[in-house]
Amino acid sequence: MFILVTYDLKGKEKKSKKCYETARKISKRILENIIITGEDFLADYMRYIEEHKIESLRSREEYSIEILLIGVLMLEYMDNGRAFMNKSVHLYVSLNGLRKSSEKFRPFIDKLRGILINRVLTKKKKGINSYTLYDFYLVIRWMEAVGDFEEELKRIKGWYLFLEAEDNEFVEEFLIYSEEIAKWMCSICENKLGNYLSNVDSYLNSYKEAHKGKEDIIFCGRSKNQYYLNMIGAEIMNDVYKESFVNCEEKRVYLPSCMRKDKETCKAIKINEGFKCMKCNKRCSVRTITLIGESKGFDSRIIPHQTSLFDIRGKNEIGVVSIACILNLLAGGWKAIRMEFIPQCVVLEYCGCAHHWCEKDVATEINYSVFREKFIKISK
Q1: Which long-range contacts (CB under 8 A, 24 or more apart) does 147-153 make?
Q2: Which DSSP category does 316 fall into?
Q3: Alpha carbon 155 to its chain's center
Q4: Checking DSSP bridges between strand 342-347 and strand 275-276, what pairing results, if any?
């Protein structure tokens, strides 16, 4: 019998409705706190962005997610950054770039990356907690070497440039604040949402043997803190873009390949962006969503991997619902925004991919009432 790993949005309930309700409630509380207690940081950073034309100014809510992101990353990877100390970062960055540009040699490159990541990037060096720009720099360089944090890096590098223009006291104050607010978020989430992540700790205690030598060992080894960050951040992001999504004339749904009932017999055909469902299996969730789309006037596409999302720019005219497991929620949303799409997201009820999580593939599902609420009911 298959045992779900890492998370299950149903918890001890028959449906995941309670998990969604709890996450919404908590996200509002956390966001309100950051906007009040981090008001000066947010105002200063938004002013810096405008003055230096870093990007088109976004909302305080979105920059609040980034403060949480920085706090969680510093908590989780500071020891890795100290151990790496910027060694041979260009080698890793080059390999990461080759992986994206060469489909043919990707298996070989991933094998080499796996060896290097396991030997070097998983190492940690304990030290006295400090809050300097250099500490932040070490974490950024380590993340660049890993190659799993493309969207996160695009978000936090702006903050690094901002802090670089400030004095040491300000930098220390900001980094302490981001870490403390992240700890507070994780504490609340552990109390209210921990039941849905009941298998994460046991998974993290045993996953290394199965992922030894593999390039995904750091991605699969992310702690509960990053699950909570994605759950809360995704709720905030959905609220921010809900109205814009409603006003999009064209809408799409992107589904992960793990939702297919049977990958071996799936007859989906390749199109210019992902795969199109041919409705070959009546018990398949992808078929169900595709049929809903045909009746409601939206497109559905199967995306084999998150990195292949949004190869065509949206020009702020296309709304997309991305369906993903928890650890891919924020990165997927940030990529959609960067590629000028208007995002909404729905979380998979559990993870089922053999490549990362399970001994063999298990078809994943979503909460259809949440899907209808986020996509159909709020659509024109």
Answers
A1: 147/92, 147/93, 147/95, 147/96, 147/99, 147/113, 147/215, 148/216, 148/218, 148/219, 150/331, 150/335, 151/330, 151/331, 151/334, 151/335, 151/338, 152/69, 152/73, 152/330, 152/331, 152/334
A2: T
A3: 12
A4: unpaired
The C-alpha atoms of residue 134 and residue 355 are separated, in whole angstroms, by: 35
Edge-to-edge strand ranges of the sheet holding 275-276: 269-270, 275-276, 299-303, 250-256, 318-324, 342-347
**Predicted confidence band of residue 312 (pLDDT cuts 50, 70, 90):** low
**What's 304's DSSP letter?**
S
Report how far residue 260's alpha carbon sits from residue 361's, in angstroms, rounded to the nearest whole number.
10
Q: Specify whether the CB–CB gap between 168 and 106 falls below 8 A.
A: no
Pick from 81, 132, 66, 143: which is nearest to 333 by CA? 66
Whole-number pLDDT of residue 317? 83
The sign of the torsion formed by the CA atoms of 330, 336, 337, 341 equals negative
Residues 6+ apart with CB under 8 A from 136: 70, 74, 160, 163, 171, 175
Q: Do the Cβ atoms of 6 and 200 come closer than 8 Å? A: yes
Locate 153 and state its tokens: 């890096």
Residue 41 token pair: 């940081």
- Predicted confidence band at 375 (pLDDT cuts at 50, 70, 90)? low
Q: How many CB atoms lie within 10 A of CB 290?
A: 22
Residues 6+ apart with CB under 8 A from 9: 16, 19, 20, 196, 347, 349, 350, 367
- Residues 160-170 have pLDDT tens digits of 999 999 999 99
Q: Which residues on neighbouring strands pair with residue 276, listed in sequence order?
A: 269
Residues 6+ apart with CB under 8 A from 111: 215
User: What is the Cα–Cα distance from 318 to 330, expressed in whole angstroms?
Assistant: 18
DSSP conformation class of 327 = G
Cα 54 to chain centroid, rounded: 22
Q: What contacts 22, CB < 8 A, 6 or more positions away? A: 192, 193
